[in-house]
Amino acid sequence: MTVPSNSITLLYADDIVFISSSAASLQTQLDTLNNWSRRWRLNVNIDKTKVLHVRKATVARSEFVFKIGDKIVDYTSQYRYLGLTVSETLDYNISVNELITGSSRALGSLVSKYYSTDGFDYDTYTKLFESTVAPIMTYCAGVWGFKAYEGLDKLQNRAIRSFLGVGKFTPIPGMTGEMAWIPVSIRNHCQMIKLWCRIVNMHSERLPSRIYAWDCSFSRNHKDTWYNNIKSIMNESGLDTLFNSKCTDGLSTKFISNFAKDMLMQKYQITWEKAVEAMPKLRTYRDLNTTYSVQPYLKSGISRHERSAIARLRCGVFPLEIEKGRYRGVPADRRLCKVCRTGSVEDEKHFLLHCPTYSLQRNRMFMDCQQRYNCNFDNMSDMDKFKFLLSAGVKIVSKFITNISDIRTQTLMRKN
Ligand SMILES: [Zn+2]
User: Fold this and answer.
1) Burial code of 386-411, b = ≥16 C-beta within 10 A, e = fewer?
2) Residue 377 confidence class, pLDDT cut points 50, 70, 90
């Protein structure tokens, strides 16, 4: 087949895509296809053949009538090509929404397995998420990944919430800081850097390389372009010299994207710290976790229910009076413990360290810990004890927490 020189043909398995800058030359491509398929007695499936007029939203769709032989080819507003939906205005929200639907289904299946097996450990859950859900979330992110897409963040937060066993009102910086997964935006930006590496290593005659060169000159007068976006990401990642050199300088793509990831994660730590600082619910959390890193209790062999109790206490969403009173507008110093009725505010420290209702269980737990782990609690401050209980992920402690939670629920039920 010979096609006009100002047009492009993409062939993949039994798919053909013609790209052209004018309606007339696209029609010439279709005529060439028609002649070729008649010669070889092949039929083009007209129902699956569509014209996509890619343009700005303010420009009207072309009225040119395209034909293959005597059959009219219909226009479409979006087309799915190699798994990615491309819209006529290149609105990637449409593409990403489809990926969200797909990854949400994959997450549903991961979470149902998580429940049916009564929970995986942190490493298994993370590995399964990274290999079954994240690849769908980042499909083609090298192209569309610059912007933030709320739906993707929500999806990742849903995965984190299911693992921690916390409710939907849990402050997001709290729960994300426990797991320390790579944030969606950084994962996407690294995908863009990987695509950049592939393009600059390509022969300059290849289509992506030609588009990149065109986009580079187009970007002198236009702001929101892929070229400008990747430039700002690489600048942010400390890779501006490499970007300006227009080559990977003998470095592997993996090395470059890992370098960018580390750099972006360091900067993210500061953003995250500010977010934690700004949330009143995370009052306890600030004492327990100051870095965006996997928390040791998640890596210990505690059960799903134990993990949930600890995570809720740490994130300030365990239903103690200090938290419930906030919603009823009770002043903080009047949110008193209804279990012991000693006039103490029922906060996390009262519940774990001081409430006399659980003295028996508490003393036994401290004795067990002392014997088994050689911990000396006598010299520990309340804050150190508190940190130990909610951070170490020791089985005896997590059993104690779930045990006193049950006692608390039963006591309150009886009193009501
Ligand atoms: Zn109490």
Assistant:
1) bebbbbbbbebbbbbbbebbeebeeb
2) confident
Evaluated on CA atoms 345, 346, 352, 354, the torsion sign reads positive
d(CA 391, CA 294) in angstroms, rounded, equals 11
Residues sharing a CB contact under 8 Å with residue 12, sequence separation 6 or more, in sequence order: 82
Q: Which of 84, 23, 28, 29 is nearest to 54 (CA)?
A: 23
Strand, coil or helix: what is 326? helix
Q: Phi and psi at residue 396, in whole multiples of 5°?
A: -60, -40
Over residues 179-207, the mean pLDDT reads 97
Of 49, 55, 50, nearest in space to 21 by CA: 55
- Find the 337 Cα to ligand 1 centroid distance in Å: 5
pLDDT tens digit sequence for 201-227: 999 999 999 999 999 999 999 999 999
Distance 353 CA to ligand 1 centre (A): 10
CA 263 to ligand 1 centroid distance, Å: 46
What is the predicted pLDDT for the residue at 82?
A: 87
Task: Give me the percent of the chain exceeding a pLDDT of 70.
Answer: 99
CA of residue 381 to ligand 1 center, whole Å? 20
CA of 394 to the centre of ligand 1 (A): 24
